[in-house]
Amino acid sequence: MKIRKFFRGSGRVLAFVFVASVIWLLFDMAALRLSINDVNSQLLKELVVKERAAIRRQATRRTHVENRVFKHPVQKVPVDLRNDVKNSKKYENIAEVYRKKQKPQPGIKEHNVAQNVANPKPDSVTLHSQKSDRKVNVKHMVEGLNGREVARNQKEATLNISKTMSNSDKVRFPKAVTQTIKGTVAKDNPQNGILSNVKDPKLTKAPSGVQEERHVITKVPQFKEESQKEKNKENIKVSSHKKTNETAKPGLQQQLPKNDTKVQPKPDSQVAAVVNNAQQNTGPLNKSDPYPVKTQIQLTPQHMAQNVEPNQVKTAFVREKGGLHKVMALDVTLKPRDARAVGQFGQAAAVPKDKEQEVQNRWNEGHFNVYLSEQIPVDRSIPDTRPALCSENMVHNNLPTTSVIFCFVDEVWSTLLRSVHSVINRSPPHLLKEIILVDDCSTKDYLKEPLDAYMAKFPKVRIIRLKEREGLIRARLAGAAQATGEVLTFLDSHVECNIGWLEPLLERVYMDRRKVACPVIEVISDKDMSYVQVDNFQRGIFKWPLVFGWSTLPEDVIKKNHMKDRDPLRCPVMAGGLFSIDKKYFYELGSYDPGLDVWGGENMEISFKIWMCGGEIEIIPCSRVGHIFRGQNPYKFPKDRQKTVERNLARVAEVWLDEYKELFYGHGYHHLLDKSMIDIGNLTEQIQLRQKLKCKSFKWYLDNIYPDMDAPLVKAEGLVFNLGTRKCLAIQNRTIAFATCDLSNQNQHFNYTWLRLIRQQGLCVVPQGLGNPVSLEPCDNTKAQQRWMINTNKLLAEHIIVESTPRRMCLEASSKGDGIYVRDCFSGSDLQRWQFTHYYAQ
Fold first, then answer.
1. Are 390 and 327 in contact, with CB atoms under 8 Å apart?
2. 728 forms bridges with which residues in the sheet?
3. I want to staple 94 with a disulfide (CB 3.0 to 4.6 A). Which of 15, 130, 207, 602 is the partner?
């Protein structure tokens, strides 16, 4: 009845309003939900469209092998090529596998000009287009021509090139083709040349980065020098080289367009053509003396390899102060590469059955397949294994020059030459100051006069010969002392540098002179000489006792830092054979420890020195160098090899490891503690150098540079509990006894060290013979009689065993708990079972 009263009169109206409001609210909520769903659907649809468009754009620029999956640190590049293929068309797709490219996008990306001032033979100009496979071979004839013919043929050649260019290229490079062609014909003498199309039906289709056509022999007149005003207005310029004497060396000029969508140099920019060592190699330029030059122009994608003839050309790179450019993708060859050559494109080479015995007989010459190495061209093409978009990276124009230093002793002829050729063929010449070959007193005859004669063809190669065997470390110091480049680049003498390897290294050093840049070291198989790709995010580390190794960066670190496969990778320890370092900084660090002998430990020494004294070591994924990894070190040591390496590592440990040096000695190098057995030399200068550089501690290095390294200072610590007596060891009045276990009592705390001592403060538990009680003596790391072994096997897992005697004796508590003795080991006795509170290592 009470409820009905509320619904009479005005109450009924209020109830109706309330119900209507609730219904209206429900309708509003439903409508709002529908509208939100519509918005979300629209946003999702737009997102999907954008992602698909981004994938398409990415696919057009992708330069890596699709669906590449690595389950191991080292993985071979998937290639299926038959050596007996006779039809050259079957090589058309090799470029996509070995250069990791999709179909090139329309547009002109690069412009390279190769000039030969040393060879008066007629040569060619070849123009390439990205959009089509058509080629325009431009032949210049010098005699019997008039000015009208020159002009008419110039115009025809320009139109032919323009037809092969996309509309976007015509916008980006409105004058590039015209200026290039005009630059090849002397303006002051129209009688000197003509442009005409010459087709060669015998062209061989080869991968990008490999010579794609035969040279058409022509004569090209001298380039006329342009004014500074004209240089600022035009995108592509050709400078002039003149011959002044018979000893004039070849020269090459190159220029790459900037990466902007519109190539328009600023009016106030200072652009200059820089020729590396031009005065040294070509002599002063005589503008009035025309001289025919050998020229080859390629208009190809920026990331494609360039092919010009080394030793007959030099590169002048047009740079703008403070400007940037894409990484140059050079791949020079002595002559058009033979696509069917053994091992070409980094393929595995097969040994004929009748040559297998020869392979075995010659294996010890280098501890790899020397026979196959000799069958492979010295300038073979290898796969471009850089991560995606490395070819799009921008580097500074004014990078420092470098001296590349190879140290060798009795190196195999073919691998040494291939190493040198790979540097010459794939390094921007204006950055390559010199190549220094340091011969560490080789005994092979072919490394004497024949090597001198061969390298005489390369103006930038110098050979330094040491009078007696010094070893790798001092040989490198000898090479560094003679180097004139701003950056020192050390390489092993059995490598193959990959496309675009040098500029990324120099860029890191340029950005911070304290950075030491290392390339990704890929594998050249010692058995079949194939080029093997390595997995990403591999860094150099060490394990005790200072053993170098490779480890993948932890996945959580990669995700946390949003790392990409082309990002520089901090490297706790470098491999030591391949790296670039600022020359002045190298000597500020004290270079290598000159007390290190021959080989071994130098990579540890310089790595610790760099990190602890303010520098950084980085692996640069966009720089790749293949290296022959051999199962055995083929080099001879003046002294015992093992003792030499051990001595070097001991020097490193004493100078740089601080209190952690016990971990080094405790992993099998106890004998190095006896100075009467081995002399590691005077360490005073190295210790003073560390103090002068104000280097950080090794603990700082472990905490900040290599935090995932397991390096406990002791193997076990805490109370030493005896299961038989249920009591713990204690020190009372400088004697050892038993006491009720008490964690707060410091007299009951012991350490079991890496040198196998049971230590309490400066006192150690020492056995006194079978049946006798143990005693306490001042700890001495060199005394073997103070060492105990723990956890040696399952039967004696909790026993403490005397190490210095052949008879197995164990630490045992008396049955009454009033003494500690040494008895014959018995696995069933609880009086011989001991437990530390904490164990850190076995």
1. yes
2. 721, 739
3. 207
- Please report, for the chain, the start and end positions of each structural domain, with discontinuous segments joined by +: 2-61, 111-326, 714-839
| The one-letter amino acid at 114 | A
Spell out a b/e string for 79-105, using b for 16 or more CB atoms within 10 Å of the CB, else e.
bebeeeeeeeeebeebbbbbbbbeebe
User: Concatenated DSSP letters for 763-822?
Assistant: EEEE--STTSBPEEEE--TT-GGG-EEES-SSTTTT-EEESS-SS-EEEEE-TTSS-EEE
Rg of the chain (C-alpha set): 36
Residue 831 and residue 815 in contact, taking contact as beta carbons nearer than 8 Å: yes
Task: Name residue, tokens 């954008």.
Answer: 50
Residue length, the chain? 842
- Residue 777 makes CB contacts below 8 A (sequence gap 6+) with 763, 764, 766, 786
Sign of the torsion angle spanned by Cα atoms 321, 322, 325, 327 = positive
824: phi then psi, degrees, rounded to nearest 5? -65, 140
Q: DSSP for 193-262, please give it.
A: ---EE---TT-----TTS--SPPPP---PPPPPPPHHHHHH-SS--------STTPPP--EEE---SSSS
The residues pairing with 464 across neighbouring beta strands, listed in sequence order, are 438
Going from the C-alpha of 516 to that of each of 512, 583, 587, 830, the distances in angstroms are 9, 11, 13, 57
Mean pLDDT by 10 residues, the chain (842 residues): 57 80 83 65 63 52 34 41 37 41 38 35 35 36 38 44 42 37 36 35 33 32 37 37 35 34 36 33 32 29 35 38 87 87 94 93 93 95 94 95 97 97 97 98 96 97 96 95 98 97 98 97 96 94 96 92 94 96 97 92 97 98 96 75 92 97 94 87 96 98 95 96 94 90 94 96 92 93 92 83 91 89 92 95 84
Residue type, 226: E
CA distances from 201 to 196, 337, 448 (A): 16, 18, 44
CA 485 to chain CA centroid, Å, is 20
How high is the pLDDT of residue 243? 34
Residues 6+ apart with CB under 8 A from 18: none
Q: Are 485 and 436 in contact (CB under 8 A)?
A: no
pLDDT confidence of residue 124: 34
Phi–psi pair at 450, nearest 5 degrees = -60, -40
Structure tokens at 96: 């996509």
- Using CA atoms, how far apart are residues 280 and 248, in angstroms rounded to an integer? 9
Helix (H, G, I), strand (E, B) or coil at 54: helix
What is the enclosing helix (H) or strand (E) of 402?
strand 402-408
Rounded (5°) CA angle 795-799-800: 140
Smallest CA-to-CA distance from 546 within 711, 687, 789 is with 711
The CATH fold assigned to 714-839 is Trefoil (Acidic Fibroblast Growth Factor, subunit A) (2.80.10)
User: Tokens in use for 712?
Assistant: 């406990």
Evaluate the CA torsion angle 574, 577, 578, 582 in order and state its sign: positive
Direct distance between the N- and C-terminal alpha carbons of the chain, in angstroms, rounded to an integer: 87
- Strand-pairing partners, residue 520, are 624
Centroid of chain to Cα 573? 13
Closest of 645, 657, 646, 647 to residue 690, by C-alpha: 657
Q: DSSP character for 289?
A: S
Q: CA 275 → CA 154, 254, 315, distances in Å?
A: 28, 9, 6
Distances (CA, A) of 286 to 3, 113, 223, 246, 573: 117, 20, 12, 13, 51
The torsion angles phi and psi of 159, rounded to 5 degrees, stand at -65, -40
- Dist CA 489 CA 434 (whole Å): 10
Beta-bridge partner residues of 434: 403
